[in-house]
Design brief:
CATH architecture: 2-Layer Sandwich
Organism: Sediminicurvatus halobius
InterPro entries: KH_dom-like_a/b, RbfA, RbfA_dom_sf, Ribosome-bd_factorA_CS
Number of domains: 1
Subcellular location: Cytoplasm
Distance between the termini: 63 Å
Strand order of the largest sheet: 1-2-3
CATH topology: GMP Synthetase, Chain A, domain 3
Number of strands: 3
GO molecular function: ribosomal small subunit binding
Number of helices: 4
CATH superfamily: K homology (KH) domain
Keywords: Cytoplasm, Ribosome biogenesis
Largest sheet: 3 strands, mixed
CATH class: Alpha Beta
Shape: elongated
Length: 124
């Protein structure tokens, strides 16, 4: 019988919570501004974790720089996670830019434009 809440998901949730605080409090790189850790996917053997992040109010170039800065700080963040988590091995961190928020904002703008266009056609 499969578990409803497998260990990898529990570890991913804990890593996400801890990383959000660590990035906010410990990372001093000016390229890393206000960052949201939207999702963490941990491999089945807990060897690595893909961390999906979004920079609030950043354009594409700033997001790439932020992701590069976080990947540069991955070793430091992993060592800090090892102090906070009770795991035998802490997964290696790979930061990725999460484009879901960008797509959502783009779709929202398109919907707003379509509604405004429809309203202007009704007035005419």
């Amino acid at each position: 019988m499969p578990k409803d809440f497998p260990r990898t998901r529990r570890v991913a949730d804990q890593v996400q919570r801890e990383l959000a605080g660590l990035i906010r409090d410990e990372v001093r790189d000016p390229r890393v501004g206000s960052v949201t850790v939207s999702e963490v996917q941990v491999s089945r053997d807990l060897a690595y974790a893909d961390v999906h992040v979004t920079g609030l109010g950043m354009d594409a170039e700033a997001s790439r720089e932020m992701t590069a800065a976080l990947n540069h700080a991955a070793g430091f963040l992993r060592s800090q996670l090892a102090r906070r988590l009770r795991l035998r091995t802490v997964p290696a961190l790979r930061f990725r830019h999460d484009e879901a928020f960008d797509r959502g904002a783009r779709l929202s703008r398109l919907i707003d434009d379509a509604v405004a266009d429809d309203a202007s056609r009704r007035d005419d």
